[in-house]
Specification:
Chain lengths: 330, 330
């Protein structure tokens, strides 16, 4: 933080709100704060909570980093989408229950700083590109495995948004047109195989068919309690069945990643989400499936790696969004 | 052709070589010439034939358009790939039997004009964007259905090549991971369902199972003679079975196109190739499948249209490649 200028990065999720002060040139994030989102209290509650966190962060960052108050350049917001960047409006977020919600201007007016808005998956990808696994790479695809599967695209050194800010819906890529039913209503979306709930559902199916495993014991016999995290824990405990479930997950994910590589020929794919804790149980079969399905030239020029920044990626990337809109490409 | 400056566009295919003089600012292509490629005569034969065509076109264009000889700015080459644009080398083309072939410099030296190289599918997409169906659009995806399925990407006003010039391999997008075997060795590639040979193969399968149709009569009982063009002709003649085959093709293609839309949120998808002659028999079920599988925001902002320039797209786009490399974005 050479000159003390910084941008507030806000990562708004369905579960929690993370806020930090991100130095203009990157580096250590100051004053990090986090609170649960609690969207059931309504939109005003969430906005007030965001504003409070931002004010706390500005105060703390000044204390921690010896920052001048007027060096807060503005606020970058990462929010679930779809959204419209030009107007700063969240068009719809099922998780938060918002529709056509002018989030950017509400925050900017309440805090008294200018703000910019992008979607959370783009922000996380941008964060990993600027300060994390993707530093120095020209084109990369971020894939976040969670309750859903999100994505972000950095192409030729810039975030690619598409014509209506709706690009990078990686989770709803069809990999098996007559396959598993997805929450979106279609069949065979990547998300129906490799999201957290899909991993848990596939694990349960095998257990119900009688596969031997530590998993039932880990959830005291209540298979509904199994999550993707339970599967990862079981792998660490040496469970062969759980490792099989992860290998199968990796094959589905590898099919989707191969599609991304054949289409976009990126230098890197960054995989984020709790499932990366499975380590080589995920990445080895994933890379192997990609080698089978992607063109050699494209596969050989693409590294497939885990994210480095964890939850910080969203905060750092949200700040980067503001910087890019106001000050040009990183 | 206001100032008489032009670029020679060369579209090299496995079947034919098309060459024309493309005005710097676009507009009517002059001196168009075409000859079969005849790659079995070897690389030298093909290069000599290309050089001869280029020289003929320069002479004819001057005559037709009253062009000054020194207004030929250079040569744009579209070739099957993969290739390396920086070195102007064709890395491999199974159709022509070339490997690591320095096409750009061989042509440039023989003609005495500078040259640039890009792959044929990128060139065709660029042509449609500059002068055809995609005029004025910011981001589009070109999909060419032929013996294989090729593609090109124009993203935010520029051709997107990827990190090793290997982007836009649309034909090998997996849409059905356990589906039909593709020539590439994998299963369930779009090309295994919607390329010309795949359409013909699916038509034959139904006929062998006893479907009533005009098709067998049209090929005098020799089902091996059925091509995608025969299927299109049968549709025009009112054949219900052929229309079913095309509807099924459109559904597969629609799955692939929906993936492109969910991932890239383009303003337009331009479909090229003989199969577009099926008109609404292709486009209606294609659009319907896309509406089912793509996100609403992204689907609503994307027009799905047929190409406008036919074979000229490759020539015009090849010339545009030269213009962009030497003079900046269009």
């Amino acid at each position: 933080m050479e000159d003390g200028r910084y941008i507030i990065g806000v990562d708004l999720g369905g579960t929690s709100i993370n806020v930090g002060a991100v130095p203009f040139e990157g580096g250590t994030v100051l004053g990090m704060r986090s609170l649960p989102t609690e969207p059931h209290h309504g939109a005003k509650f969430v906005v007030d909570r965001m504003v409070g966190l931002i004010q706390d962060v500005i105060r703390d960052a000044r204390r921690e980093g010896d920052l001048a108050a007027d060096f807060a350049l503005g606020i970058g917001l990462g929010s679930p989408g779809p959204l419209d960047r030009a107007s700063g409006t969240v068009i719809e977020t099922p998780n938060l229950g918002w529709r056509n919600f002018p989030l950017r201007d509400l925050i900017a007016n309440a805090v008294g700083l200018e703000a910019e808005l992008d979607n959370d998956a783009n922000a996380a990808t941008l964060g990993e590109w600027w300060q994390g696994a993707g530093r120095g790479v020209r084109s990369l695809v971020g894939v976040t495995l969670g309750t859903g599967i999100g994505g972000g695209l950095i192409l030729d050194g810039e975030v690619y948004h598409g014509v209506s800010d709706a690009a990078a819906e990686i989770g709803h890529m069809t990999i098996d047109s007559t396959g598993r039913k997805c929450n979106c209503g279609n069949y065979g979306c990547l998300e129906a195989y490799a999201s957290g709930p899909a991993i848990a559902a596939r694990a349960r199916e095998g257990l119900e068919a009688g596969a031997p495993s530590l998993l039932p014991e880990m959830v005291a016999g209540d298979l509904e309690q199994i999550t993707a995290a339970t599967v990862s824990e079981a792998i660490v405990a040496g469970d062969v069945y759980a490792a099989d479930v992860m290998r199968e997950t990796a094959k589905f994910l590898g099919t989707g990643v191969a599609n991304l590589i054949n289409l976009l020929n990126p230098e890197m794919i960054v995989i984020s989400g709790g499932v990366t804790r499975a380590g080589d149980h995920l990445f080895e079969p994933l890379r192997s499936e990609v080698r089978k399905r992607a063109f050699r030239e494209a596969a050989e020029s693409c590294r497939i790696v885990a994210n480095e920044l964890g939850d910080m990626a969203g905060v750092i990337g949200a700040a980067a969004t503001f910087r890019i809109v106001r000050y040009g490409p990183l």
